[in-house]
């Protein structure tokens, strides 16, 4: 077993609080490491927890957890936790985790989950979830990018934008939904359940200038590839229609995200809808 055997790998550093009197990681923490990794597994499958499991009509509950130890980890070690689904039963799913320091296998964890309803009664694992697990382990892309008009994508984009901008950031709804939406090109990233996990829009700011805005990513998907995928799709659409540059109003906390995509800040920080923004530009 090697780290590269796993599509999903989560990296963490051993903390002081996880080390016992023997100066090695306390045995129970390896289960915690596996649990952290499986949370990242669902994230890499583009499945925000509450919305996704609500749609599927149940949740996964641990039935069995088995840990096998080979060598100890110590404070400061950088560990890679690989996790994969190795078996699908009728009502259960079996996962296997490998905990590595470099290429050295320190620990394996077997987790058996049962899919159950709100009363914790076992139910058949939904076919949608089965299909997504199979696709993920086969290396398939878990997010589909859709590009189109507000008529095509408005329902998906609006729900996510209301969740992010209105409920989370406190932007007034009457500001968030404006007169530009019907004339914009919209891109929505959709997961295997048909839910929007990222969105953005493109409008002409001036001749040859594309303005990108309303970039939103579901909370649990931030830091994944979703935001960059949406941004790249919008930039590609701008180039295809002949624009020479793109401009956007970035929330200051997201400045580095846009800088990594080639945008350069200009001017001073300003307030927009009660949030600090800065203008950023990219020339093609």
* Physical arrangement of strands within the biggest beta sheet: 6-7-8-9-10-12-11
Mean pLDDT: 95
Number of strands: 12
* Shape, principal axes of CA atoms: globular
SS element count, helices: 7
As a whole number of angstroms, the C-alpha radius of gyration is 22 Å
Termini separation (Å)? 45 Å
Structural class: alpha+beta
- Strand percent estimate: 35-45%
Query: What percentage of residues falls in helices of 4 or more residues?
Result: 25-40%
- Identify low-pLDDT runs: none
- Secondary-structure element pattern, one letter each: EHHEEEEHEHHEEEHEHEE
Q: Sheet with the most strands?
A: 7 strands, mixed
Q: How would you describe this protein?
A:
With 284 residues, the protein is an alpha+beta fold. The strands form 2 sheets. It has a 7-stranded mixed β-sheet with strand order 6-7-8-9-10-12-11, with helices on both faces. A hairpin with a 5-residue loop joins β7 and β8.
Strand-helix topology:
Elements: E1 8-13, H1 29-44, H2 49-56, E2 59-69, E3 78-88, E4 92-101, E5 104-116, H3 127-137, E6 144-148, H4 150-168, H5 173-176, E7 185-190, E8 196-206, E9 209-217, H6 226-240, E10 245-251, H7 255-260, E11 264-272, E12 275-283
Parallel strand pairs: 9-10
Antiparallel strand pairs: 1-3, 2-5, 3-4, 4-5, 6-7, 7-8, 8-9, 10-12, 11-12
